[in-house]
Write a structure and sequence with these properties.
Helices cover 34% and strands 18% of the residues. The protein is built from 9 helices and 15 strands. It has helices at 15-40, 90-102, 116-121, 136-139, 181-190, 203-212, 222-231, 259-274, 277-286; strands spanning 54-56, 66-71, 80-81, 87-88, 105-110, 127-128, 142-144, 149-151, 153-158, 174-177, 197-200, 217-221, 237-240, 248-250, 253-255. A 6-stranded mixed sheet has the order 1-5-2-6-15-7. The chain has a 5-stranded mixed sheet with strand order 11-10-12-9-13, with helices on both faces. A two-stranded antiparallel ribbon has the order 3-4. The longest helix has 26 residues, at 15-40. The termini are far apart. The model is unreliable at 1-14, 34-52 and 294-307 (pLDDT under 50).
């Protein structure tokens, strides 16, 4: 006589039994695995993690637009990477302050200088903040905010030097950073192969050589010089400006025609200057802010003694 379960609805080989015991558990396992993959790319709050090389501010409210700011984090103190890999610097602090006043959310994406303008044009970046000089040529293909930094080439000297103007450098050994406005200016004054020009990989190295007596003067941008002096208060330098070294201005670049975002940024720039936020940020990196540095109404120089550094 066959057991009672044979042929009954509880037969372990019947379709319903197979479905309950085999299929359903497999489906549950698959669902759990898929859920793990979907949420594995999120943080503990369920928010998607930013792409590699992106530094975010506080999480944006759900549904808020987050604007991606391209910056080449290789130009301290304007933008660089700290020991934790975060993008930091003067430009970063200024844009964050402007964004807060403008009521917008931003995150920063480290973007190589060679492709930074292409990234803006293709829509991969919503704006750029990377010590970018406002020029007439660039304004043909992109829009710029009002200027947020006045870049001025300075002649840096030891305290005992008697140099009083740019032309006085003709008989001296001058240190410059390769490929900068200072390099081009010295080349125009002395000639490209003149032994009186000593080229360095960075402005910091040039200034260190000036301190040790390796060169008589350094031609460099005011922001880099001021930052060096802040970090090295024992350095005994004096600086000379000359009208032949025409000032330039940095601005936030946007894709042509984005008038709504441009208006918000300009309003934010005015507000951070009015409430002292800009001066505080400037002082953090360069010392006391000069009167023109944060003037949102300043007219940018369209020409200079040499092409834009950035």
């Amino acid at each position: 006589m066959l057991p009672a379960w044979v042929g009954s609805r509880h037969n372990r080989f019947c379709p319903e039994f197979v479905c309950n015991i085999v299929v359903r558990p497999l489906v549950q396992i698959v669902c759990i695995a898929v859920a793990g993959l979907l949420f594995g790319a999120c943080d503990k709050k369920g928010q998607p993690l930013p792409p590699q090389g992106v530094t975010e501010s506080a999480p944006a409210p759900y549904g808020a637009i987050v604007y991606t700011v391209g910056t080449d984090a290789s130009y301290a103190p304007f933008e660089s990477l700290n020991d934790n890999g975060d993008i930091v610097g003067f430009d970063i602090d200024v844009v964050r302050a402007v964004a807060k006043k403008a009521g917008i959310e931003v995150r920063f994406a480290n973007t190589p200088w060679g492709s930074i303008f292409t990234a803006l044009d293709q829509g991969d970046r919503d704006m750029l903040a990377s010590a970018i000089t406002i020029t007439a040529e660039r304004k043909e293909t992109m829009d710029f905010s009002s200027p947020y930094f006045r870049a001025q080439q300075l002649i840096v000297l030891r305290e005992t030097s008697r140099v009083a103007s740019f032309v006085d450098l003709g008989r001296l050994k001058v240190g410059v950073q390769i490929g900068t406005i200072g390099d081009d200016a010295a080349t125009k004054l002395k000639g490209s192969s003149n032994a009186g020009i000593k080229r360095f990989e960075s402005t910091q190295l040039a200034l260190e050589d000036l301190e040790s007596g390796g060169v008589d003067a350094v031609l460099a941008e005011n922001g880099l010089v001021s930052h060096y002096i802040v970090k090295n208060p024992g350095s005994k330098f004096r600086t000379v400006s000359d009208p032949v070294l025409v000032p330039q201005h940095y601005g936030i670049a946007l894709k042509k025609g984005n008038s709504e975002l441009l208006s918000k940024l300009n309003r934010g720039l005015i507000d951070i200057k009015a409430d002292g936020s800009y001066d505080a940020i400037y002082g953090k990196y360069f010392g006391q802010a000069p009167a023109e540095a944060g003037d949102s109404n300043a007219k940018p120089a369209e020409a200079a003694v040499a092409p834009a550094r950035r």
